[in-house]
Amino acid sequence: MYQPTLYARSNAAQRESVSRVLREWAGRLRWSREEQEAVLDVGCGPGDVTAQLLLPRLPSSVRVLVGHDVSEEMVRHAAAAHAALAPRLRFLCTDIAARDLPATPLGAFAQQLQGFHKVFSFYALHWVADQRTALRNIHSLLRPGGEALLLLVANAPMYDAHIAMQNNPRWCDFMQDAYSFMPPYKRSTDPVKDFSAELQQAGFNIHACKVENFSYRYPTMQDFADSTMVLNPFLKRVPEELQTTFINDFMTEYQREKGKYMSMVSRQELERNDTTLYHSHLLTHVEKGNQDVS
Ligand SMILES: C[S@@+](CC[C@H](N)C(=O)[O-])C[C@H]1O[C@@H](n2cnc3c(N)ncnc32)[C@H](O)[C@@H]1O
């Protein structure tokens, strides 16, 4: 997961999805004409989405955009790769689920700013098991009246493929904790209801919360495999001489598991052993009420 250069080369699907979301949503947020706003990107990874997709969508009045990530490697890479855009764009290392947020670099910076006006997060929050603390922290990082646009994976055949692999005696020893890498709402029968409940518990007013299906066709099977393997938490545990077999087995399971997502996948695509990545994501637009003082 923490391979910034490789990830930035293999995230075409995420970039396509974020571009679509920003095209539709960036202009819907309330941007101030008078105030120089401060914006945060939670779980920015290698910073390419922050610098190349988010920053150009922000009004020129935005005085600072902060990308932050739990991974020091990601933050180091992002800061070096986008140094030319500093100090308007800067990167900090902090866990969004930190129990003592004010003591972290992000918490301290937010205090100096008196809070962020906007928070964005793309494809990061489903990695965070402690949703309650993460959402409460996002709420506390915002100014009263501040808005957040959050995009996270709800479900994907990739995770079913992990479980199928975990049940395979050949791979089970490397994947005993497969369930701890599942998106938090994967097993929910109503992800919108469950995520909305967490958002409300954190203190947010919800303007929109929905599940959308997304698919992206990679040019080749190799591109598809590279993109899924860069995020695969188990591959590095597998001895090098077995890694190709592991990847091939994963791809076979993935094709099989796609069949369970018939609303996302046409029968025709299933039959073609195609190179399409599928997931459903949760997209939400929330606001911190004006009366909030947390
Ligand atoms: C799939 S990458 C997404 C990167 C980028 N937002 C994008 O859209 O390409 C997920 C990122 O979330 C980060 N992440 C995971 N858990 C986190 C946490 N608790 N706090 C902050 N970042 C986290 C990971 O380190 C990783 O860089």
From TrEMBL:
<feature type="domain" description="Methyltransferase">
    <location>
        <begin position="39"/>
        <end position="146"/>
    </location>
</feature>
<dbReference type="GO" id="GO:0010420">
    <property type="term" value="F:polyprenyldihydroxybenzoate methyltransferase activity"/>
</dbReference>
<dbReference type="InterPro" id="IPR029063">
    <property type="entry name" value="SAM-dependent_MTases_sf"/>
</dbReference>
<dbReference type="Pfam" id="PF13649">
    <property type="entry name" value="Methyltransf_25"/>
</dbReference>
<dbReference type="InterPro" id="IPR041698">
    <property type="entry name" value="Methyltransf_25"/>
</dbReference>
<protein>
    <recommendedName>
        <fullName>Methyltransferase domain-containing protein</fullName>
    </recommendedName>
</protein>
